[in-house]
Amino acid sequence: MSAGGPLSLPASPVAAAFRNIQWDPLSSLRLTAQETALLRMAETNPIEYTLADSRDASMYARVLLKLLAEASAAGSGTGTVSTLKQACSQTKAQELLETDPLGVVTHYALAKLHDIITTLNSGSGVSVSTVFYVGKEGVLVDQWKALLRILNKGGKGDVYAQTSAALCLAQILVTSCPSLQTGAEKDPMGKGRPTSYASAVEPLEALTAWVVTQLKGASGTSVGICIPALTALMGAAETRLLFVSNGGVKYLCRQLRVGGKRSGSEQPLPTGASASVQQLYELSFCLWTLTYELSNSYNVRSEFSKESQAVSALVDLVSAAPREKVVRVCLSGLRNMATCLDEVNPGPPGSQKFDGTSFLTSMLGCGLMKAIEYLKERQFTDPDIIDDITVLYKLLSANYQEMSRWEVYKTEVESGHLQWGSTHTEAFFKENARMMEGSDGDFRLVKLLIALLTSHDEDVAAIACYDVGEFVRHYPNGRAIAKRLGAKELVMNLIEHENVELQRHALQCVSKIMVQNW
Fold it and tell me: Is the pTM of the predicted complex or chain greater than 0.90?
Protein backbone atom coordinates (compact mmCIF):
# COMPACT_ATOMS: atom_id res chain seq x y z
CA MET A 1 0.00 0.00 0.00
CA SER A 2 1.37 3.42 -0.88
CA ALA A 3 0.34 7.04 -1.06
CA GLY A 4 0.52 6.83 -4.81
CA GLY A 5 2.27 9.33 -7.04
CA PRO A 6 4.09 12.54 -6.20
CA LEU A 7 2.57 14.90 -3.65
CA SER A 8 0.49 17.40 -5.56
CA LEU A 9 -0.70 20.92 -4.89
CA PRO A 10 -3.76 22.74 -6.19
CA ALA A 11 -2.92 25.55 -8.58
CA SER A 12 -2.40 29.03 -7.18
CA PRO A 13 -5.53 31.22 -7.33
CA VAL A 14 -3.52 33.70 -9.42
CA ALA A 15 -1.71 31.18 -11.65
CA ALA A 16 -3.28 32.83 -14.71
CA ALA A 17 -1.12 35.91 -14.10
CA PHE A 18 2.25 34.14 -13.86
CA ARG A 19 3.16 34.44 -17.53
CA ASN A 20 2.59 38.22 -17.45
CA ILE A 21 4.98 39.03 -14.59
CA GLN A 22 7.42 41.77 -15.60
CA TRP A 23 10.58 41.58 -13.51
CA ASP A 24 12.26 44.89 -14.37
CA PRO A 25 9.69 47.17 -12.64
CA LEU A 26 9.84 45.09 -9.43
CA SER A 27 12.88 46.83 -7.99
CA SER A 28 11.98 45.84 -4.42
CA LEU A 29 13.00 42.27 -5.29
CA ARG A 30 16.60 43.45 -5.88
CA LEU A 31 17.21 41.03 -8.74
CA THR A 32 20.47 41.18 -10.67
CA ALA A 33 20.49 41.19 -14.45
CA GLN A 34 21.75 37.60 -14.44
CA GLU A 35 18.91 36.48 -12.12
CA THR A 36 16.31 38.22 -14.26
CA ALA A 37 17.71 36.56 -17.37
CA LEU A 38 17.59 33.16 -15.68
CA LEU A 39 13.93 33.63 -14.75
CA ARG A 40 13.08 34.58 -18.33
CA MET A 41 15.02 31.64 -19.73
CA ALA A 42 13.22 29.25 -17.38
CA GLU A 43 9.87 30.56 -18.64
CA THR A 44 10.74 29.94 -22.28
CA ASN A 45 12.27 26.45 -21.88
CA PRO A 46 10.86 23.16 -20.55
CA ILE A 47 11.72 22.71 -16.87
CA GLU A 48 13.65 19.52 -17.67
CA TYR A 49 16.01 21.61 -19.82
CA THR A 50 16.59 24.15 -17.03
CA LEU A 51 17.31 21.39 -14.51
CA ALA A 52 19.54 19.30 -16.76
CA ASP A 53 22.67 21.09 -15.52
CA SER A 54 23.21 20.97 -11.75
CA ARG A 55 24.65 24.51 -11.60
CA ASP A 56 21.75 25.99 -13.55
CA ALA A 57 19.30 24.05 -11.40
CA SER A 58 20.92 25.26 -8.17
CA MET A 59 21.00 28.86 -9.34
CA TYR A 60 17.37 28.73 -10.47
CA ALA A 61 16.22 27.31 -7.11
CA ARG A 62 18.14 29.96 -5.18
CA VAL A 63 16.71 32.76 -7.29
CA LEU A 64 13.21 31.51 -6.47
CA LEU A 65 14.07 31.37 -2.77
CA LYS A 66 15.46 34.90 -3.06
CA LEU A 67 12.16 36.03 -4.60
CA LEU A 68 10.36 34.67 -1.53
CA ALA A 69 12.74 36.34 0.90
CA GLU A 70 12.71 39.72 -0.83
CA ALA A 71 8.94 39.70 -1.41
CA SER A 72 8.39 38.88 2.25
CA ALA A 73 10.75 41.65 3.37
CA ALA A 74 8.89 44.09 1.12
CA GLY A 75 5.52 43.23 2.66
CA SER A 76 4.03 40.35 0.69
CA GLY A 77 1.38 38.34 2.46
CA THR A 78 -0.64 41.37 3.49
CA GLY A 79 -2.39 42.07 0.19
CA THR A 80 -5.50 40.70 -1.51
CA VAL A 81 -3.74 37.66 -2.97
CA SER A 82 -3.16 36.20 0.51
CA THR A 83 -6.92 36.12 1.16
CA LEU A 84 -7.90 34.20 -1.97
CA LYS A 85 -9.38 30.72 -1.64
CA GLN A 86 -10.53 30.05 -5.21
CA ALA A 87 -8.99 30.43 -8.66
CA CYS A 88 -9.32 33.83 -10.34
CA SER A 89 -10.24 34.54 -13.93
CA GLN A 90 -7.53 35.76 -16.27
CA THR A 91 -8.86 39.31 -15.97
CA LYS A 92 -9.00 39.25 -12.16
CA ALA A 93 -5.54 37.67 -11.88
CA GLN A 94 -4.12 40.39 -14.12
CA GLU A 95 -5.72 43.07 -11.96
CA LEU A 96 -4.15 41.53 -8.86
CA LEU A 97 -0.75 41.45 -10.58
CA GLU A 98 -1.03 45.23 -10.83
CA THR A 99 -2.45 45.87 -7.34
CA ASP A 100 -0.61 43.16 -5.36
CA PRO A 101 2.43 42.17 -7.44
CA LEU A 102 4.42 40.84 -4.46
CA GLY A 103 1.58 38.48 -3.57
CA VAL A 104 1.54 37.12 -7.12
CA VAL A 105 5.35 36.79 -7.15
CA THR A 106 5.24 34.79 -3.90
CA HIS A 107 2.76 32.34 -5.40
CA TYR A 108 4.81 32.17 -8.60
CA ALA A 109 8.05 31.34 -6.76
CA LEU A 110 6.39 28.64 -4.66
CA ALA A 111 4.69 27.04 -7.67
CA LYS A 112 8.01 26.93 -9.55
CA LEU A 113 9.86 25.51 -6.52
CA HIS A 114 7.31 22.73 -6.28
CA ASP A 115 7.72 22.05 -10.00
CA ILE A 116 11.50 21.81 -9.49
CA ILE A 117 11.24 19.35 -6.60
CA THR A 118 8.62 17.22 -8.39
CA THR A 119 10.78 17.03 -11.52
CA LEU A 120 13.94 16.20 -9.58
CA ASN A 121 12.13 13.48 -7.63
CA SER A 122 10.92 11.90 -10.86
CA GLY A 123 14.39 10.50 -11.44
CA SER A 124 16.24 13.04 -13.59
CA GLY A 125 20.03 13.16 -13.49
CA VAL A 126 20.18 16.04 -11.01
CA SER A 127 18.92 15.33 -7.48
CA VAL A 128 17.22 17.36 -4.75
CA SER A 129 20.33 17.00 -2.60
CA THR A 130 22.52 18.41 -5.39
CA VAL A 131 20.32 21.49 -5.73
CA PHE A 132 19.52 22.31 -2.11
CA TYR A 133 22.64 21.06 -0.27
CA VAL A 134 26.04 22.62 -0.94
CA GLY A 135 29.75 22.02 -0.38
CA LYS A 136 31.67 18.82 0.17
CA GLU A 137 29.64 18.08 3.29
CA GLY A 138 26.33 18.68 1.57
CA VAL A 139 25.05 21.36 3.97
CA LEU A 140 21.52 22.74 3.58
CA VAL A 141 21.44 26.13 1.82
CA ASP A 142 20.71 29.09 4.10
CA GLN A 143 17.90 30.31 1.89
CA TRP A 144 15.52 27.65 3.27
CA LYS A 145 14.56 30.19 5.95
CA ALA A 146 12.45 32.05 3.39
CA LEU A 147 10.05 29.07 3.38
CA LEU A 148 9.84 28.92 7.18
CA ARG A 149 9.18 32.66 7.32
CA ILE A 150 6.01 32.15 5.27
CA LEU A 151 4.77 29.56 7.78
CA ASN A 152 5.38 31.77 10.79
CA LYS A 153 3.49 34.83 9.65
CA GLY A 154 0.63 33.96 12.01
CA GLY A 155 -3.05 34.78 11.69
CA LYS A 156 -5.05 33.16 8.93
CA GLY A 157 -2.17 33.60 6.53
CA ASP A 158 -2.09 32.76 2.87
CA VAL A 159 -3.52 29.25 2.46
CA TYR A 160 -1.79 28.50 -0.85
CA ALA A 161 1.52 30.02 0.23
CA GLN A 162 1.59 28.19 3.57
CA THR A 163 0.54 24.85 2.09
CA SER A 164 3.12 24.98 -0.70
CA ALA A 165 5.93 26.42 1.45
CA ALA A 166 5.44 23.67 4.05
CA LEU A 167 5.40 20.93 1.41
CA CYS A 168 8.47 22.23 -0.42
CA LEU A 169 10.40 22.57 2.83
CA ALA A 170 9.39 19.07 3.95
CA GLN A 171 10.47 17.50 0.66
CA ILE A 172 13.81 19.31 0.74
CA LEU A 173 14.54 18.34 4.35
CA VAL A 174 13.45 14.70 4.17
CA THR A 175 16.11 14.17 1.50
CA SER A 176 18.80 14.47 4.18
CA CYS A 177 17.51 11.63 6.39
CA PRO A 178 20.10 8.84 6.80
CA SER A 179 17.44 6.14 6.44
CA LEU A 180 17.00 7.25 2.83
CA GLN A 181 20.74 7.20 2.16
CA THR A 182 21.37 3.47 2.61
CA GLY A 183 21.41 2.66 -1.08
CA ALA A 184 20.50 4.01 -4.48
CA GLU A 185 17.67 1.52 -4.79
CA LYS A 186 16.03 2.96 -1.66
CA ASP A 187 16.75 6.58 -2.42
CA PRO A 188 16.59 7.62 -6.05
CA MET A 189 17.30 11.18 -4.85
CA GLY A 190 20.67 10.29 -3.37
CA LYS A 191 22.65 10.13 -6.61
CA GLY A 192 24.62 13.32 -6.03
CA ARG A 193 26.91 14.50 -3.27
CA PRO A 194 26.27 13.44 0.36
CA THR A 195 23.74 15.40 2.35
CA SER A 196 24.24 16.59 5.91
CA TYR A 197 21.37 15.48 8.12
CA ALA A 198 22.82 17.57 10.96
CA SER A 199 22.28 20.74 8.92
CA ALA A 200 18.59 19.83 8.45
CA VAL A 201 17.74 18.84 12.02
CA GLU A 202 16.91 22.34 13.29
CA PRO A 203 14.63 23.23 10.35
CA LEU A 204 13.02 19.79 10.59
CA GLU A 205 12.23 20.43 14.25
CA ALA A 206 10.76 23.83 13.39
CA LEU A 207 8.65 22.42 10.55
CA THR A 208 7.41 19.50 12.64
CA ALA A 209 6.41 21.85 15.46
CA TRP A 210 4.46 23.95 12.94
CA VAL A 211 2.67 20.87 11.57
CA VAL A 212 1.66 19.76 15.07
CA THR A 213 0.38 23.27 15.82
CA GLN A 214 -1.82 23.12 12.71
CA LEU A 215 -3.20 19.74 13.80
CA LYS A 216 -4.18 21.31 17.11
CA GLY A 217 -6.43 23.72 15.19
CA ALA A 218 -10.16 23.09 15.18
CA SER A 219 -10.88 23.98 11.56
CA GLY A 220 -10.58 21.81 8.49
CA THR A 221 -8.67 24.63 6.78
CA SER A 222 -5.80 24.74 9.30
CA VAL A 223 -5.48 20.96 9.13
CA GLY A 224 -5.66 20.91 5.36
CA ILE A 225 -2.77 23.37 5.13
CA CYS A 226 -0.37 20.96 6.81
CA ILE A 227 -1.46 17.61 5.35
CA PRO A 228 0.82 17.62 2.26
CA ALA A 229 3.85 18.47 4.42
CA LEU A 230 2.86 15.89 7.04
CA THR A 231 2.56 13.24 4.33
CA ALA A 232 6.03 14.14 3.06
CA LEU A 233 7.44 13.89 6.59
CA MET A 234 6.09 10.35 6.85
CA GLY A 235 8.58 9.35 4.16
CA ALA A 236 11.51 8.70 6.51
CA ALA A 237 11.94 6.95 9.85
CA GLU A 238 13.74 9.95 11.38
CA THR A 239 10.93 12.37 10.60
CA ARG A 240 8.25 9.91 11.72
CA LEU A 241 9.95 9.58 15.10
CA LEU A 242 10.39 13.35 15.32
CA PHE A 243 6.66 13.83 14.73
CA VAL A 244 5.85 11.34 17.50
CA SER A 245 8.29 12.95 19.97
CA ASN A 246 6.59 16.31 19.32
CA GLY A 247 3.27 14.91 20.54
CA GLY A 248 1.82 14.67 17.04
CA VAL A 249 0.04 11.33 17.50
CA LYS A 250 -2.42 12.82 19.98
CA TYR A 251 -3.52 15.61 17.68
CA LEU A 252 -3.53 13.44 14.56
CA CYS A 253 -5.85 10.98 16.32
CA ARG A 254 -8.04 13.82 17.58
CA GLN A 255 -8.54 15.09 14.03
CA LEU A 256 -9.38 11.58 12.83
CA ARG A 257 -11.96 11.03 15.57
CA VAL A 258 -13.65 14.38 15.01
CA GLY A 259 -13.59 13.98 11.24
CA GLY A 260 -14.76 10.37 11.41
CA LYS A 261 -17.78 11.21 13.52
CA ARG A 262 -18.73 14.06 11.21
CA SER A 263 -18.35 11.91 8.11
CA GLY A 264 -20.69 9.33 9.60
CA SER A 265 -23.33 11.91 10.47
CA GLU A 266 -26.45 12.31 8.35
CA GLN A 267 -26.59 16.00 9.19
CA PRO A 268 -25.15 18.55 6.74
CA LEU A 269 -21.71 19.73 7.75
CA PRO A 270 -20.78 23.39 8.15
CA THR A 271 -18.39 24.64 5.51
CA GLY A 272 -14.76 24.61 6.67
CA ALA A 273 -15.57 22.79 9.90
CA SER A 274 -15.31 19.19 8.78
CA ALA A 275 -12.79 16.82 7.39
CA SER A 276 -13.56 15.67 3.86
CA VAL A 277 -13.32 11.97 3.09
CA GLN A 278 -10.10 12.67 1.19
CA GLN A 279 -8.70 14.51 4.19
CA LEU A 280 -9.66 11.58 6.44
CA TYR A 281 -7.88 9.24 4.06
CA GLU A 282 -4.73 11.33 4.03
CA LEU A 283 -4.67 11.65 7.83
CA SER A 284 -5.36 7.94 8.36
CA PHE A 285 -2.64 7.18 5.80
CA CYS A 286 -0.18 9.16 7.94
CA LEU A 287 -1.22 7.29 11.09
CA TRP A 288 -0.91 3.98 9.23
CA THR A 289 2.62 4.94 8.16
CA LEU A 290 3.54 5.60 11.78
CA THR A 291 2.45 2.08 12.80
CA TYR A 292 5.54 0.74 11.01
CA GLU A 293 7.66 2.26 13.79
CA LEU A 294 5.78 0.47 16.60
CA SER A 295 8.11 -2.53 16.88
CA ASN A 296 11.19 -0.30 16.64
CA SER A 297 10.34 2.31 19.27
CA TYR A 298 9.01 2.11 22.82
CA ASN A 299 8.14 5.81 22.64
CA VAL A 300 5.93 5.28 19.59
CA ARG A 301 4.10 2.37 21.28
CA SER A 302 3.67 4.49 24.40
CA GLU A 303 2.23 7.44 22.45
CA PHE A 304 -0.14 5.15 20.53
CA SER A 305 -1.30 3.61 23.82
CA LYS A 306 -2.15 6.84 25.64
CA GLU A 307 -5.88 6.81 26.38
CA SER A 308 -6.25 4.25 23.56
CA GLN A 309 -6.32 7.28 21.28
CA ALA A 310 -4.92 5.63 18.16
CA VAL A 311 -7.08 2.53 18.54
CA SER A 312 -10.18 4.66 19.17
CA ALA A 313 -9.54 6.80 16.09
CA LEU A 314 -9.05 3.84 13.76
CA VAL A 315 -11.95 1.81 15.19
CA ASP A 316 -14.25 4.82 14.82
CA LEU A 317 -13.31 5.13 11.16
CA VAL A 318 -13.66 1.40 10.48
CA SER A 319 -17.10 1.48 12.11
CA ALA A 320 -18.21 4.58 10.18
CA ALA A 321 -16.68 3.18 6.95
CA PRO A 322 -16.80 6.51 5.06
CA ARG A 323 -15.02 5.02 1.99
CA GLU A 324 -13.33 1.73 1.16
CA LYS A 325 -9.91 3.36 0.84
CA VAL A 326 -10.23 4.76 4.39
CA VAL A 327 -11.26 1.33 5.70
CA ARG A 328 -8.25 -0.21 3.94
CA VAL A 329 -5.61 1.95 5.63
CA CYS A 330 -7.35 1.80 9.01
CA LEU A 331 -7.54 -2.01 8.99
CA SER A 332 -3.90 -2.23 7.94
CA GLY A 333 -2.91 0.14 10.74
CA LEU A 334 -4.90 -1.88 13.30
CA ARG A 335 -3.26 -5.07 12.08
CA ASN A 336 0.20 -3.53 12.47
CA MET A 337 -0.71 -2.52 16.01
CA ALA A 338 -2.13 -5.97 16.84
CA THR A 339 1.03 -7.73 15.65
CA CYS A 340 3.73 -5.33 16.91
CA LEU A 341 6.45 -6.62 19.24
CA ASP A 342 8.53 -5.05 22.01
CA GLU A 343 11.67 -7.15 21.57
CA VAL A 344 13.84 -4.63 19.70
CA ASN A 345 13.14 -1.70 22.03
CA PRO A 346 11.31 -2.90 25.16
CA GLY A 347 11.61 0.40 27.01
CA PRO A 348 13.23 1.40 30.33
CA PRO A 349 13.46 -1.22 33.10
CA GLY A 350 10.21 -1.41 35.04
CA SER A 351 8.24 0.48 32.40
CA GLN A 352 4.77 -0.58 31.33
CA LYS A 353 4.68 -3.17 28.58
CA PHE A 354 3.13 -2.16 25.27
CA ASP A 355 2.79 -4.70 22.47
CA GLY A 356 0.26 -6.31 20.17
CA THR A 357 -1.57 -7.98 23.05
CA SER A 358 -2.14 -4.70 24.89
CA PHE A 359 -3.39 -3.08 21.68
CA LEU A 360 -5.76 -6.00 21.05
CA THR A 361 -7.21 -5.52 24.51
CA SER A 362 -7.86 -1.86 23.69
CA MET A 363 -9.42 -2.86 20.37
CA LEU A 364 -11.87 -5.15 22.17
CA GLY A 365 -12.74 -2.33 24.56
CA CYS A 366 -13.37 0.02 21.63
CA GLY A 367 -15.76 -2.42 19.98
CA LEU A 368 -13.62 -3.53 17.05
CA MET A 369 -14.96 -7.09 17.22
CA LYS A 370 -18.46 -5.89 16.41
CA ALA A 371 -17.16 -3.77 13.53
CA ILE A 372 -15.10 -6.66 12.16
CA GLU A 373 -18.11 -8.99 12.29
CA TYR A 374 -20.05 -6.43 10.25
CA LEU A 375 -17.22 -6.02 7.75
CA LYS A 376 -17.03 -9.81 7.29
CA GLU A 377 -20.54 -9.68 5.83
CA ARG A 378 -19.60 -7.07 3.23
CA GLN A 379 -18.45 -8.16 -0.20
CA PHE A 380 -14.99 -6.63 -0.46
CA THR A 381 -12.97 -7.36 -3.58
CA ASP A 382 -9.67 -5.95 -2.28
CA PRO A 383 -7.58 -8.94 -1.11
CA ASP A 384 -5.69 -6.76 1.41
CA ILE A 385 -8.92 -5.81 3.17
CA ILE A 386 -10.13 -9.42 3.22
CA ASP A 387 -6.82 -10.63 4.64
CA ASP A 388 -6.70 -7.90 7.31
CA ILE A 389 -10.27 -8.69 8.40
CA THR A 390 -9.46 -12.40 8.67
CA VAL A 391 -6.26 -11.86 10.67
CA LEU A 392 -7.82 -9.30 13.02
CA TYR A 393 -10.84 -11.49 13.68
CA LYS A 394 -8.62 -14.43 14.65
CA LEU A 395 -6.40 -12.30 16.89
CA LEU A 396 -9.35 -10.58 18.58
CA SER A 397 -11.14 -13.88 19.16
CA ALA A 398 -8.06 -15.46 20.73
CA ASN A 399 -7.49 -12.43 22.97
CA TYR A 400 -11.14 -12.28 24.01
CA GLN A 401 -11.14 -15.92 25.10
CA GLU A 402 -8.22 -15.21 27.45
CA MET A 403 -9.97 -12.26 29.12
CA SER A 404 -12.46 -12.47 31.97
CA ARG A 405 -15.76 -10.60 31.68
CA TRP A 406 -14.45 -8.09 34.21
CA GLU A 407 -11.33 -7.43 32.11
CA VAL A 408 -13.52 -6.87 29.06
CA TYR A 409 -15.69 -4.41 30.99
CA LYS A 410 -12.70 -2.57 32.49
CA THR A 411 -11.09 -2.19 29.06
CA GLU A 412 -14.36 -0.91 27.58
CA VAL A 413 -14.80 1.77 30.25
CA GLU A 414 -11.17 2.85 29.99
CA SER A 415 -11.54 3.25 26.23
CA GLY A 416 -14.71 5.33 26.59
CA HIS A 417 -16.45 3.21 23.93
CA LEU A 418 -19.41 1.86 25.87
CA GLN A 419 -21.71 -0.52 23.97
CA TRP A 420 -24.74 -2.41 25.24
CA GLY A 421 -23.91 -6.04 26.02
CA SER A 422 -23.65 -8.66 28.74
CA THR A 423 -21.39 -6.47 30.89
CA HIS A 424 -24.11 -3.82 31.24
CA THR A 425 -26.65 -5.95 33.09
CA GLU A 426 -27.95 -6.43 36.62
CA ALA A 427 -26.36 -9.89 36.77
CA PHE A 428 -22.92 -8.51 35.89
CA PHE A 429 -23.03 -5.82 38.59
CA LYS A 430 -24.31 -8.23 41.22
CA GLU A 431 -21.19 -10.30 40.58
CA ASN A 432 -18.64 -7.54 40.03
CA ALA A 433 -19.76 -4.43 41.95
CA ARG A 434 -16.96 -4.77 44.51
CA MET A 435 -14.39 -4.82 41.70
CA MET A 436 -15.29 -1.18 41.07
CA GLU A 437 -13.19 -0.24 44.12
CA GLY A 438 -10.03 -0.79 42.11
CA SER A 439 -6.75 -2.22 43.38
CA ASP A 440 -5.96 1.05 45.17
CA GLY A 441 -9.46 1.62 46.51
CA ASP A 442 -9.75 4.87 44.53
CA PHE A 443 -12.87 3.90 42.52
CA ARG A 444 -11.09 4.96 39.36
CA LEU A 445 -13.54 3.10 37.11
CA VAL A 446 -16.50 4.80 38.81
CA LYS A 447 -14.85 8.17 38.20
CA LEU A 448 -14.39 7.28 34.53
CA LEU A 449 -18.07 6.29 34.26
CA ILE A 450 -19.13 9.58 35.84
CA ALA A 451 -16.94 11.47 33.37
CA LEU A 452 -18.67 9.60 30.53
CA LEU A 453 -22.01 11.04 31.67
CA THR A 454 -20.97 14.20 29.79
CA SER A 455 -20.06 12.33 26.59
CA HIS A 456 -21.32 13.86 23.36
CA ASP A 457 -22.17 10.32 22.25
CA GLU A 458 -25.70 9.89 23.61
CA ASP A 459 -25.51 6.07 23.64
CA VAL A 460 -22.34 6.22 25.73
CA ALA A 461 -23.95 8.68 28.18
CA ALA A 462 -27.05 6.45 28.46
CA ILE A 463 -24.96 3.35 29.22
CA ALA A 464 -22.93 5.33 31.75
CA CYS A 465 -26.20 6.31 33.48
CA TYR A 466 -27.22 2.67 33.66
CA ASP A 467 -23.85 1.50 34.99
CA VAL A 468 -23.66 4.23 37.65
CA GLY A 469 -27.18 3.30 38.77
CA GLU A 470 -26.28 -0.39 39.00
CA PHE A 471 -23.12 0.42 40.97
CA VAL A 472 -25.26 2.40 43.42
CA ARG A 473 -27.63 -0.54 43.82
CA HIS A 474 -25.11 -3.33 44.28
CA TYR A 475 -22.09 -1.77 46.03
CA PRO A 476 -22.35 -1.22 49.80
CA ASN A 477 -22.66 2.53 50.40
CA GLY A 478 -22.49 3.00 46.61
CA ARG A 479 -25.10 5.76 46.86
CA ALA A 480 -22.88 7.94 49.08
CA ILE A 481 -19.81 7.28 46.95
CA ALA A 482 -21.59 8.23 43.73
CA LYS A 483 -22.91 11.45 45.32
CA ARG A 484 -19.49 12.35 46.68
CA LEU A 485 -17.94 11.92 43.22
CA GLY A 486 -20.49 14.26 41.65
CA ALA A 487 -22.66 11.74 39.79
CA LYS A 488 -26.01 13.10 40.97
CA GLU A 489 -25.52 16.61 39.57
CA LEU A 490 -24.34 15.35 36.18
CA VAL A 491 -27.20 12.89 35.84
CA MET A 492 -29.74 15.55 36.86
CA ASN A 493 -28.58 17.59 33.86
CA LEU A 494 -29.66 14.75 31.59
CA ILE A 495 -33.22 14.14 32.79
CA GLU A 496 -34.60 16.71 30.35
CA HIS A 497 -32.37 15.69 27.45
CA GLU A 498 -33.99 15.72 24.01
CA ASN A 499 -32.91 12.10 23.44
CA VAL A 500 -35.76 10.05 24.92
CA GLU A 501 -33.65 6.96 25.60
CA LEU A 502 -30.94 8.96 27.38
CA GLN A 503 -33.61 10.81 29.35
CA ARG A 504 -35.13 7.49 30.48
CA HIS A 505 -31.81 6.08 31.70
CA ALA A 506 -30.98 9.37 33.46
CA LEU A 507 -34.32 9.31 35.33
CA GLN A 508 -33.75 5.71 36.39
CA CYS A 509 -30.21 6.53 37.54
CA VAL A 510 -31.40 9.51 39.62
CA SER A 511 -34.09 7.30 41.18
CA LYS A 512 -31.52 4.66 42.13
CA ILE A 513 -29.36 7.35 43.73
CA MET A 514 -32.28 8.93 45.61
CA VAL A 515 -34.41 5.90 46.60
CA GLN A 516 -33.09 3.70 49.40
CA ASN A 517 -34.62 0.41 48.25
CA TRP A 518 -34.82 0.48 44.46
Answer: no
